[in-house]
Amino acid sequence: MAPATEQRRHVLERIARGISERAAGTTSFHVAIDGPDAAGKTTFARDLDDVLYPMLPHGVELRRFSADDLIIPLELRRSEQAADPRWVYENVYPLDRIREITIGDPVHEKPGTVVLVDGMSLLRPELEDLWHLRIYLSVPESVTVQRVLDRLNQEDDEPEAVRARYQERYLPALRLYREIADPVSRSEVVIDMRDPDSPVVVRWGGL
């Protein structure tokens, strides 16, 4: 993997410093990295992990997981139920499991532990109380679709079938999420990720 560009590194380092400062003295510090599909959330979380860990005091733990590891199976995403965008929004993740993993075991969690969680629609009302810092990675719908198509392999569906599912199911579900939760307004940090090598921070949120 190519090293991060100067601009991307600057963004990661500034966010990492802010997290390390805010997490100090807390029981645990939960960071949501939200955004639409193919915004680069998991890669951003991994890179942030790499930059943040050396900044934390010795012995402080850093945990990271992707909510996409818990997403409903492919057969459900292609089912008749999933033709309803609201059903997709309400059922895409097991929210109780996201909460459980994020909180971990408070009895054994070391003070100042930082937890990075990436995924779609993490800022929904049901998880509102879980997060201490909200980061939203923004890309237009056209970029989402093109990136999904670009990463298809020979074992995937035909591009037009994938495009149709996004247009008819997944993008409407994400629009519903934005309507219900307004994640851009409620995120402390908002980053335009149309060019992942040159992210543009729209709002720093005091970091």
UniProtKB/TrEMBL annotation:
Alphabetical keyword list: Kinase, Transferase
InterPro entries, alphabetized: P-loop_NTPase
Keyword Kinase: yes
GO molecular function, one term: kinase activity
Superkingdom of origin: Bacteria
Protein name stated in the entry: Uridine kinase
Gene3D superfamilies in the cross-refs: P-loop containing nucleotide triphosphate hydrolases
Keyword Transferase: yes
